[in-house]
Each structure stands twice: as C-alpha cells, then as structure tokens.
Write a structure and sequence with these properties.
heterodimer, A: alpha/beta, seven-stranded mixed sheet, B: alpha+beta, 3 helices, 2 strands, 14% strand
Chain lengths: 415, 101
C-alpha cells in the first residue's frame, strides 16, 4: 500500500491528538558527557546551557567515570566495535561470558545471561520459562517491560495490589491448582522509589511454593550494604529465583541487561528467550565498561555510600523546605504535586533555574498522582544539592505550595 | 409479521425466562448457526493438516470478554463468562498506568 495522503493524514492527526493531550515526548539534546552537570540544548536550536541533572538513572555516576571510559576505549581497540551476530552464532566473546560470571558473583546467584537490555530480558524471560498451566502474579506497579513480557507469555496473568502482602497471599492460595506460580515485582519501584517487601514476598513464596522474580534495575549497584541490590537490602540473598537487571542505570548507564538466578532457569533462557536469540550481542566496549564498573564496585562501597548520603540529604532538604515528598530510602525522590499542569509548569520553571527535572502525570503515573520525580546521583556534590534545594524553594514559593499537603494542593490546583 | 428466520416458542411449562436463560438461548442459536456454517469442513482440512505437521489440535466453545479504552483493546477467551471476565480484569489492571522508565 502506498503511503497515501490519507494514511499520512491519519498519522499526523494521531500525533496531534497526543500533543493536544499534553503527552508529546520531546527530547532535549545533551552536548557532552552524562553527569551531575550537563550542557542542554532546549528548546531545539537554542544555545546550550549548563543545568544540574536531577533526572538521570546515573545513580553511581559511572556514566562519565574516567576509568570506565578508559576501559571501554581499551576494549573498543582490542575487541572491535560490534559483533555482527547474535550470541549463539558468532557473537560471544570471552568477555561476554566473563561479565556473566562477574555479575553472577556480584549478585550472588547461580548463573547469568546477558540481554541487549533489561527491557529485552523482561520481554523474554517469562515466555521462555512458563506455559499455560502456570501463573504469573505481578505487583500492580511493575515496570512496563514486565507487563510486556507477561503479555508475551501463555501463563495465566494475575496481579496483586501494590506491596499488599495480604492480597498476594490470597492470590497464591487462589492459584494453588497451577503447575508453577511466579511472583513478579520490581525491587525498587520507578514511580515512587519505594522498596518491595522482598523478605515477606520470599516468606510467602516459600509457604505457597512459588518462584520469585525481581526486576532490580533501579537497585543493582547501590541498594544493600555492598550494593548488590534489593535482595541484599531485604536480607534475602540467594533466595530470589530470578533477578532481571540493567547495565543501563547504575552500572555505567550504556546499554545491556541480564537475567540472573537459578542455573536451570538461566540456561533455559539461553535456549529459548527470543530477545536473546534474535538480537545482536552487547557491544564489546559496553562489556569492557561494565567489567570495570563491577571491579570498582567490588573494590569499594564508597560510591554507594555517597549516594545513600546524598539521597538522605536531598530528601531531608525537600521535606524541611515544605515539599510533599514520597517517603522512602532509595535515590528516587518524588515531589508530589497531584496536578499535571502544576508538575509541568514547575519542571519548566526549574529548568529556567538551571535544574533539569521532569514532571510525570497520567498515564505515566496513576490519575491524581502527578509529581516531579527527582533522582540523586553519587556524582552530585554538596553544591549541586544546595543549588537544587534553593531552586525548588524559589519555584515552590512562586506557586505557593510550600508546607502544603495533598489535600491543600488538590484544593488549590485540582487533582 | 414474524420474519421467516424467526420462530416464537412458548416457554416450556410456562416457566419464566431469566436473563441468563435468554442469553443461553441466544448462545445455543449462535452455536447452531456457527456449526451449520462450518458444514463445508474446510476447518477440518486445516485441523488435519496441522495434525499432520505434528500439532495436537483441539477446539471448544468459549466466552470472549473484551474492553476498549482510548487506543487500548483487551480481549480474552475464557471457559466460562466468569473466567473470561477474571482474565479481562487482570489484563485491564496492567493497563492502568504506563509507568515511569
């Protein structure tokens, strides 16, 4: 079918509808290396300006770390630019397997398989392991990629109310007739930054004979005393059957993800997971960078310690200034505003003040839960946090929201 | 005048028909019509070909439940209406929010 005028028109109108709904995603061009301070061109064509970045997943600041860049460059030189193959044909270098071993050691699991991204890992893992006689029981706020993976799997799909252990147990009891039950949750939830109750989930899973799968993308590298992830933070090392996680956030932020866990489950993913079977291997330079990140993480907990302190200080600063902040212990610190327009306006004003944050509202978060999601990094210095609070206070005063809770904010701006 | 394609029947022993009874009668009529349309047995050829290719082939009548909202369309097939709607509810919950990257 030719790309006829009416076809073009339909797509143009669809894009216009997205824009009218205020949901058009616009990219901001960063000139330079990802970090605490970045040079941003926005709107397109404008002169780039330096802003403090409070919305990256660069939790440990490894995206621009000199040793990581040097390791990636060295691997680029020694191992080339790309593999031009999927892993199982001729796309596996010794370094791919070495990184899988190192991730296995770091996460304290039995085996690991790399994927092009954690999005791909989540898209492939369930279909590879479960069938129509099984059930997936997911927390209702799991990441979109888990939802996609569930849809690709023939297993019965069910959900439990967010972090509601009573409801999860009801579901586990309800599905006792299934061959296998798998509970699926994020370790740290990306919207609210809250931590899954993995200790309780594991207890329920043992009681009702279920497997547990955790997407720890927003936790690997810094949650827990040695940064191993939510399973370490919750005291359940070795008890999670499957962990999916990413190299695209704290572990250097380039690309790549993995499935790590029970040996047989990982091996079956190697045999069956379609995103693994039909996607190119992760680029050698990314592997080299990730190996260096793991080496640095194993050598010292300094960066995750700094991140923990920064997150505490940032959260405390916002609360003391009078913002309504979601409680938690992760570096995801959502400033609750409840109104989509307010979230957008404040994010724009903060950008004008040199602070790069993004407003999130429905359908990205539930209706009436609009917020600015801030994310702290170990790369942030005291001056970045101080300047950030200063800007938030200035903009907060402009809108008269300081010291106001949910009820007052909704009354003033609507939910 | 009733059309030639319809026929009025008194309910047996004058029993009052519930909504479920009416739905059941509709389903029976729909099933009968569907089976008559299948009389050419082309579907049977397909089933035989699939079996010859190594598939274990089966079929049964089920309930379809569906829901549409904005650009999203969810559809499930269940063994019973209750089963279909339970599946539909779970699927719809997964669509409640897109989630943060």
């Amino acid at each position: 079918m030719a790309y006829a005028t009416e076809v073009r028109q339909w797509y143009q109108e669809e894009i216009a509808r997205i824009a009218e709904a205020g949901l058009l995603k616009q990219e901001r061009f960063i000139h330079g290396i990802q970090g605490a301070e970045i040079l941003v061109e926005f709107p397109p064509g404008s002169r780039p300006r330096t802003v403090i970045n409070l919305c990256a997943n660069n939790y440990l600041g490894f995206s621009g770390h000199p040793e990581v860049i040097a390791a990636a460059r060295e691997t680029l030189e020694s191992r080339g630019y790309g593999m031009s193959s999927v892993r199982f044909i001729c796309g596996t270098q010794d370094l791919h397997r070495e990184l899988e071993r190192r991730l296995t050691d770091f996460l304290e699991t039995e085996d690991t398989l790399l994927f092009p991204s954690c999005m791909d890992a989540n898209a492939g893992v369930f279909e590879a392991l479960l069938a129509e006689q099984d059930v997936l029981i997911a927390d209702r706020l799991v990441h979109a990629s888990i939802v996609d993976g569930m849809r690709l799997c023939k297993a019965v799909q069910d959900t439990y109310k967010h972090s509601d252990m009573g409801h999860l147990e009801e579901k586990l009891v309800e599905h006792q007739d299934k061959r296998f039950r798998m509970v699926v949750t994020d370790g740290v939830f990306s919207m609210d930054g809250d931590v899954a109750k993995l200790d309780e989930i594991v207890m329920l899973a043992e009681k009702h004979r279920a497997l547990v799968c955790v997407d720890d993308s927003h936790a690997t590298g810094f949650m827990g005393a040695r940064g191993k992830g939510t399973h370490e933070a919750c005291g359940v090392l070795g008890k999670i059957d499957l962990i999916t996680t990413t190299l695209g956030k704290a572990l250097g932020g380039a690309s790549g993800g993995c499935v790590s866990g029970r040996k047989e489950l990982v091996e079956l993913c190697r045999q069956r997971a379609r995103p693994y079977l039909f996607s190119n291997a992760v680029a050698p330079a990314v592997i080299g960078g990730a190996l260096k990140v793991l080496e640095l993480l194993t050598r010292s907990t300094e960066r995750r310690d700094v991140l923990e302190r920064n997150a505490e200080e940032w959260r405390r600063g916002l609360v003391q200034a009078g913002f309504d902040v979601k409680p938690g212990r992760s570096p995801i610190v959502p400033v609750m505003l409840y109104n989509a327009r307010l979230a957008q306006d404040m994010a724009r004003d903060l950008f004008d003040e040199g602070i790069y944050v993004v407003g999130f509202f429905f359908p990205v978060v539930p209706k009436g839960q609009a917020r600015i999601r801030t994310q702290v990094s170990a790369a942030h210095e005291q001056r970045h946090l101080d300047r950030g609070i200063e800007a938030f206070v200035k903009v907060g005063k402009k809108y008269g929201i300081l010291g106001k809770g949910k009820r007052e904010l909704v009354e003033a701006f609507g939910g | 005048m009733p059309s030639t394609n319809s026929r009025a029947l008194g309910s047996p022993r004058g029993a009052a028909l519930s909504d479920t009874d009416r739905e059941l009668l509709d389903a029976i009529a729909e099933t009968l019509a569907g089976l008559r349309e299948d009389a050419d047995e082309k579907w049977h050829d397909i089933a035989r070909r699939l079996e010859a290719a190594g598939w274990e082939v089966g079929w049964r009548i089920g309930w379809i439940a569906e829901a549409r909202r904005r650009g999203v369309h969810e559809q499930v097939v269940g063994r019973s209406r209750a089963d279909a709607f339970a599946q539909l509810a779970s699927l719809a919950l997964l669509d409640d929010v897109e989630g943060c990257p």
